[in-house]
Specification:
Order of helices and strands: HHHHEHHEHEHEHHEHEHEHEH
Number of domains: 1
Structural class: alpha/beta
CATH superfamily: Aldolase class I
Helix content: 40-55%
Strand order of the largest sheet: 7-6-5-4-3-2-1-8
CATH architecture: Alpha-Beta Barrel
Oligomer: single chain
Radius of gyration: 19 Å
CATH class: Alpha Beta
Number of strands: 8
């Protein structure tokens, strides 16, 4: 596989930027042997990371029709999520309906993109709600992702975590968001982390595995980079920042460390791995910042749902509100946009 070069922000027409040009499917990351020398030799320059991320929201400005197109693109990358203790089948069905029609039809008409069939990338729920989501999305082609392996702490017995993956896949989930055991990272036990993720990957079968690192609990960016590498070596299809339940979730510095790990892995092995920031992405401005990060660091190919996802719920409502402002010139009240 040829990894696309890291190009600059393009001036593609808004409709093309929203829909994206067709890309050939990528081979799935098979993983590699654990290369401890590579992992242990990794270094991250905190000051350089902070300087780099500080420029992402200041050097680039996407306005008017281009901003609307980028926000439409962001919608197609959202894993629309509900992970609340009071989730009900009715809430999940509403979530699925919103995922299939994420933007009001009149706004799509005014934007000239009604024929693009814009949906979110997936719906993400607890295992208990997988059958409800699968039934609500049947025939749409929209995948269901299940959080698994003792989410969010990942401290249930190992066999229980494996069984949960298998049950979610059997129920119809085609994507599994697993949580790693943070202690393996904190203790620098990279073999244990590799073995754990490798077994989770095997339990997923054909379902894609997103490895949640819970970066807010890993201590350092060096640990974040190393954990990303090990998860990819073990066969993760995506590396994901957070469960959304930690005190610190997705941040640009953490994301840059993970994206650089993805880039290094791709250049060394030839396999592209996806990235999913989750937790704390609430505004359209947030979405634009992460899109710029991916575009500049990894290139255009990483702006497609098979390589980039946003784990979010409230993000969609703010994007829709910004799109209405683009169409009407006025900011609407939040209640005008049905929340998932």
């Amino acid at each position: 596989m040829t990894i696309e070069s890291r190009d600059k922000l393009s001036a593609a027409p808004p409709t093309e930027a929203a829909a994206g040009p067709p890309f050939a499917p990528l081979p799935r990351n098979p993983g590699t042997a654990l290369e401890l020398d590579w992992v242990q030799g990794a270094r991250v320059n905190l000051s350089a990371v902070e300087r780099r991320t500080a420029t992402l929201t200041t050097r680039r400005s996407v306005k008017k029709a281009w901003q609307a197109a980028w926000l439409l693109k962001a919608i197609t990358l959202i894993d629309l999520t509900t992970l609340a203790g009071d989730d009900t089948p009715g809430r999940v069905r509403r979530l699925c309906a919103k995922a299939l029609s994420p933007v009001r039809a009149d706004l799509l008409d005014e934007l000239g993109v009604a024929d693009l069939g814009i949906t979110t990338a997936a719906v993400c729920v607890y295992h208990e709600m997988v059958p409800t989501a699968v039934a609500a999305l049947r025939g749409s082609g929209l995948p269901v992702a299940a959080v698994s392996t003792g989410f969010p702490a990942g401290l249930s017995p190992f066999e229980t975590r494996l069984d949960e993956i298998k049950r979610s896949v059997a129920a119809g989930a085609t994507e599994i968001d697993i949580v790693i055991s943070r202690r393996h990272v904190l203790l620098q036990d990279w073999q244990a982390l590799y073995d754990e993720v490798r077994l989770f990957r095997a339990a997923c079968g054909d379902a894609h595995l997103k490895a949640i690192l819970a970066t807010g609990e890993l201590g350092t960016l060096r640990n974040v980079y190393r954990a990303s590498l090990v998860a990819m070596m073990a066969g993760a299809d995506f590396v994901k920042t957070s469960t959304g339940k930690e005190s610190v979730n997705a941040t640009l510095p953490v994301s840059l460390a993970m994206v650089r790990a993805i880039r290094d892995y791709a250049e060394r092995t030839g396999f592209a791995v996806g990235f999913k920031p989750a937790g704390g992405l609430r505004t359209a401005k947030d979405a634009l910042a992460w899109l710029v990060l991916m575009k500049e660091e990894l290139g255009r190919r990483w702006l497609e749902p098979d390589l980039l996802r946003f784990g979010a719920s409230s993000l969609l409502a703010d994007i829709e509100r910004q799109l209405e402002h683009h169409v009407t010139g006025r900011y609407s009240a939040g209640y005008r946009h049905p929340l998932a």
